[in-house]
């Protein structure tokens, strides 16, 4: 029995990595996002840290996220500011509509929810593209994000589902939604964007 436990130990450690490293990257994202408008550059920096772990086996997800943040801030602060403003407007609209009882309210709520879902998919894909190619331009990241998030209905649905399920399933872990909610969807997007995935 002891031999069985010893042989299973490395496998268990490898499985724990898939929780520990995304959680570490998510922790760095949470800290960097305290500036509110810094959340998008922080998401891209987190994606870069996760990509280095995926591609190179670099376990410094937490420190790599912090190290790469200044570069992404310089590139994405305008985009982050605009996205934060858009999120604030959407939230205000939804809160306002929830207090109305007219029949047409449901249609407008559905439209707001659709816009929000589209923005979520786009930003997860944008972070993944930026994390994969830190030296590229914002325009290149945006093109890649559109292809990644919306080039396939199944892929876009999977990314949106990952955002929702990561938050719900991580509720059992202390601070799980904060640590794993952003990192798991980005990790999935990085997997979808990996060229090796499409190699015969």
Summarize the structure.
Helices cover 80% and strands 0% of the residues. By secondary structure, it is an all-alpha fold.
Describe what this molecule looks like in 3D.
This protein has 200 residues and is mainly alpha-helical. The protein has one domain (2-198). Helix content is 80%, strand content 0%. The chain has helices spanning 2-32, 39-56, 61-98, 105-132, 138-150, 153-169, 176-180, 183-193.
Task: Tell me the structural class.
Answer: mainly alpha
The helix/strand series, from N terminus to C terminus, equals HHHHHHHH
The biggest sheet, with number of strands, parallel, antiparallel or mixed sense and barrel status, is: none
Q: How many strands appear in the DSSP assignment?
A: 0
Distance, first to last CA = 41 Å
Number of helices: 8
Q: What is the 3D shape?
A: globular
Mean model confidence by pLDDT: 90
Instruction: Report strand %.
Output: under 5%
Helix content: over 70%
Determine Rg (CA atoms, Å).
Answer: 18 Å
How many individual domains?
1
Which regions contain 5 or more consecutive residues with pLDDT less than 50?
Answer: none
């Amino acid at each position: 029995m002891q031999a069985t436990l010893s042989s299973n130990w490395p496998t268990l450690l490898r499985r724990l990595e898939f929780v520990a490293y995304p959680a570490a990257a998510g922790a760095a994202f949470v800290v960097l996002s305290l500036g509110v408008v810094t959340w998008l550059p922080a998401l891209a920096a987190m994606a870069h840290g996760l990509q280095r772990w995926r591609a190179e086996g670099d376990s410094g997800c937490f420190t790599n996220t912090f190290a790469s943040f200044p570069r992404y801030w310089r590139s994405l602060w305008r985009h982050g500011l605009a996205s934060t403003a858009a999120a604030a407007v959407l939230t205000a609209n939804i809160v306002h509509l929830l207090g109305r009882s007219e029949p047409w309210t449901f249609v407008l709520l559905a439209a707001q929810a659709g816009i929000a879902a589209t923005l979520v998919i786009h930003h997860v894909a944008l972070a993944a593209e930026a994390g994969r190619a830190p030296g590229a331009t914002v325009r290149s990241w945006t093109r890649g994000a559109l292809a990644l998030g919306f080039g396939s209905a199944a892929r876009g649905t999977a990314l949106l589902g990952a955002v929702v399920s990561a938050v719900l399933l991580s509720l059992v872990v202390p601070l799980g939604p904060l640590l794993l909610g952003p990192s798991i969807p980005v990790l999935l997007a990085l997997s979808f964007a990996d060229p090796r995935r499409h190699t015969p």
